[in-house]
Amino acid sequence: MTQPRAEALTISGLDCFYGEVQVLYGLDLVLNKGEVLCLFGRNGAGKTTTLKAIMGLVPSRAGSIRVDGRELTGLPAHDVPKAGVAYVPQGRRLFAEMTVAENIEIGLMARGKGKATRENVLELFPLLRQRLRQSSGTLSGGEQQMLAMARALCLEPQVLLLDEPTEGLMPSMIAKIRETVAKLRVSGVSTILVEQRVDAVLSVADRVSFIENGRNRETVDVEKLRADPSAVRRYVGVG
After folding, report:
1. Beta strand 85-88 pairing with 21-32
2. CA–CA separation, 85 and 155 (whole Å)
3. Alpha-carbon distance 223 to 207, whole Å?
4. How far is it, in rounded angstroms, from Cα 15 to Cα 134?
5. pLDDT computed for residue 199 by the predictor
6. Ubl conjugation among the record's keywords (predicted)?
7. CATH code, 1-84+157-238
8. What ranges make up the beta strands (E) of the chain?
9. What span, in angstroms and rounded, lies between the C-alpha atoms of 104 and 200?
10. What is the pLDDT of residue 3?
11. For 92, which DSSP code?
């Protein structure tokens, strides 16, 4: 019998609103330590809102978000990264006029990390080492995504949140992002990955949670999903 895995992040009964409009309804979600959990669902299902709620960018009116046993709900958004949670939003949101090196430096400052962390991050993304003096706004889409991930990893996070990291990228860059996520899992980082394209991430996912109308309808192991992809058709509408 396999031992239950330790939980890196636990969301229980989460209610979130935009103004007076409720968008998450009693959401429950568990991210185990050292796993990749993918969130799938149609547009507007609540996937991105879930990530923003974890980061304190959308306030919760009820429920609990715990990372390694520490309660995050109620923390100011700028304190959530200090608790070991890193977020790469959709669209990357880099400082376009700053160089690659300066963007990385900003990432290091968030938790007071130094040269050793910088080296580890550049080992993970060797392409960025060649671009350190280049303005980040002049990088290709794939290179910008790598820089956004590198900046987030400067926190040395326990939990990494990625919102559609493969969007608009060429197949070769998608493969590099997948490879990086797999390496991070080996190093003990626990990742939540929001994606629209099932084929882009199934090779690196451990489990998949299907979000629909602000609720986690079902969480399944990837092997089970490969054997029976009907849940993808049911919740995402493709398959």
Report:
1. unpaired
2. 8
3. 8
4. 42
5. 75
6. no
7. 3.40.50.300
8. 7-18, 21-32, 36-40, 60-67, 70-71, 85-88, 159-163, 190-194, 207-212, 215-221
9. 26
10. 52
11. -
- Dihedral (CA of 135, 117, 80, 160) sign: positive
Question: What confidence tens digit (pLDDT) does each residue in 68-113 have?
Answer: 889 999 899 999 999 999 999 987 788 888 999 999 999 998 888 9
Segments making up each domain of the chain, as ranges: 1-84+157-238, 92-156
Residue type (1 letter), 29: L
Radius of gyration of the chain (CA): 17
In angstroms, the Cα distances linking 143 to 24, 158, 185 are 33, 24, 21
- Please check whether residue 14 is in contact with residue 26, taking contact to mean a CB–CB distance below 8 angstroms: yes
Could you give the CA distance from residue 127 to residue 122 in angstroms, rounded to a whole number? 8
CA 169, CA 19: separation in Å to the nearest integer? 34
The three-state secondary structure class of 167 is coil
Per DSSP, the three-state class of 135 is: strand
Chain centroid to CA 107: how far?
Answer: 16
Query: Phi/psi of residue 144, each to 5°?
Result: -65, -40
Residue 185: C-alpha distances to residues 29, 35, 191, 192, 203 (Å): 19, 6, 8, 11, 13
Give the integer Cα–Cα distance in Å for 121 and 115.
10
Positions in the chain short of pLDDT 50: 1-2
Q: Return all residues near 156 (Cβ < 8 A) that are at least 6 apart.
A: 84, 111, 113, 117
> What is the rounded CA–CA span in Å between residue 80 and residue 74?
10
